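Discrete fold record:
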Amino acid sequence: MNKPCADKSCFAHKGESCALGETDLAKCDSWCATITDDKSEEISITATTFRVPWSGSALGLADMANLSPRGRTILIGVLGAHDAGKTTLLTGNYLQLLQGKLLANAGFAGSRTLGAWEALAAWTRFDDAARPALFPPHTPRGTSRVPGLLHLALRNTKGEFRDILLADAPGEWFTRWAIKEDAPEAEGARWVVRNADAFLVFADCNRLATSNPERGKARNELRQILERLGNHVGDRPTTMVWAKDDIEPNADIRSSIQQTLTRQIPHALEVSSSTNRPATLTKAMETALCPAWSPVPATYLVEPVLHHQPFSAFRGSHAYA
């Protein structure tokens, strides 16, 4: 039987983890202070096994309750039609961070969805001669009503820490939401649009190319998404990503989409990206992440002057502050 730790707030003697975070109790000063010269009292707990409240898979809404209290959380909504390159851009940014590169002037500081990230990144690695590297597979529509969230923890040179949540939702949700906003199968899309701090909207250059017979359908789908998003986006940062820009989209179609973007979301930015230029994937993410990094400053409350008489200058509870 171990004696209680000298730190009254620590319950390591009951099998819990060290209150100071030591994995080896022999290195904890508070714990060692309880050891006497009697060699018969051996430390039976030399190391503690920790359990963490996450599995490494994509996060759900319940997981956010464990994540949000530790700091500012930024949710990036990733919108676009099926196979527009959304998951590829997210995976590309993860691989860039693994190489030690910065994202929004911040470095990788951890992730609670490493299993999900690695499941995507495994498709792009040349580690099996029998299997060529491929783009990440399509995100399945599934039966969930909200998307799985990929997580990155970033810390910049100023020591500012942020939890970044990336909604890797299937494109079919947004296509359906654009057609019928209150469709039951579009619940996940509505949740993303309602809660996101910034948006990335994808335009698939391959589907918009002159040689692609589906370019008209792709244009209509994208315009519908922009028109629907324009009703909800407000002043939140929004970036149009021309993905797969190695292929030139039809000029008239591109102009038509840009006109819709300017009309519906005037403050939106435009960037191009390609997997052949990994830096463009990072730049696309930064255009949405950087403006959302710091919260918008609160504005001063100005009490209206209702009467220009000193006896009418009632200020409520502020008068007695």
Observations:
- The CA atoms of residues 79 and 201 lie 5 Å apart.
- Residues 215-230 form the longest helix (16 residues).
